[in-house]
Amino acid sequence: MASAAAPYPEGAPCWADVALGDPAAGKRFYGELLGWTFGQPAESYGGYTEAYLDGAKVAALAAKPDGRMPTAWNIYFATPDLGAAAQRVTAAGGQLIAGPARVGGLGRALTAADPGGSVFGVRQPGGSDADAGFERTGEPGSYCWVENHTREPRAVDAFYEAVFGYAPSESPQAPGHRLLSPRGSEPGAHTAVAGREVLGGLFPAEMPPHYLLYFRVFDADETAAVARRLGGRVQLEPREGPYGRWAILTDNQGARFAVLSHPRGVN
């Protein structure tokens, strides 16, 4: 699975943040679980706090302005023109939830829902590569992958093809799992920046459509044990998959995410 370098091509995941009721508790959880340190909260933006791994930006924690908002991880896809992307979202049958709006020195962003109901963000960087988003991906303690879990695969596939020009392909290791590559690239696992999965099987019938973010870790089993100790939960016990050993966890406030380590015996 490819990780894009900044500046990111259109449609590539470029940033992630988590909306929490208690960001201080979130710092304690993710600081120990993933080895993150944290910058100073941006008080003018509700205490938005960037997370770092060895000095490189890897994510952010946001305070929920309204307790009714979901406690959840959010993924943002890159675009060079947020206004044009917003028009494509609505024209293709999506819904704008918030924005487009400027977000401090981080550029402009919007939040939207696709026709299947999965919520995602789109982000146009600020004036320098330093504003483009992730400064490290694919390494232990950082973002490595994202999947859209949906019950409307045909409508969702058509939507993202219209919005981002994704070139789809089927995963040779996971039948039924679709890989999405940026516009103009050769479809396949070596260029894929996201995946699309049909909800079912391992997931309960009442689970809503969503994006599931993965963070790379050294050892999925050990990380799951640490999450439990820190007050989180293990939603899906560690198991072997086509790309390594993985598990689905929730943090100590209920935000859901996955962790992925290399297959056992592979460094």
From TrEMBL:
<dbReference type="Pfam" id="PF00903">
    <property type="entry name" value="Glyoxalase"/>
</dbReference>
<dbReference type="InterPro" id="IPR041581">
    <property type="entry name" value="Glyoxalase_6"/>
</dbReference>
<dbReference type="InterPro" id="IPR052164">
    <property type="entry name" value="Anthracycline_SecMetBiosynth"/>
</dbReference>
<dbReference type="Pfam" id="PF18029">
    <property type="entry name" value="Glyoxalase_6"/>
</dbReference>
<dbReference type="InterPro" id="IPR037523">
    <property type="entry name" value="VOC_core"/>
</dbReference>
<feature type="domain" description="VOC">
    <location>
        <begin position="12"/>
        <end position="125"/>
    </location>
</feature>
<dbReference type="InterPro" id="IPR029068">
    <property type="entry name" value="Glyas_Bleomycin-R_OHBP_Dase"/>
</dbReference>
<dbReference type="InterPro" id="IPR004360">
    <property type="entry name" value="Glyas_Fos-R_dOase_dom"/>
</dbReference>
<protein>
    <submittedName>
        <fullName>VOC family protein</fullName>
    </submittedName>
</protein>
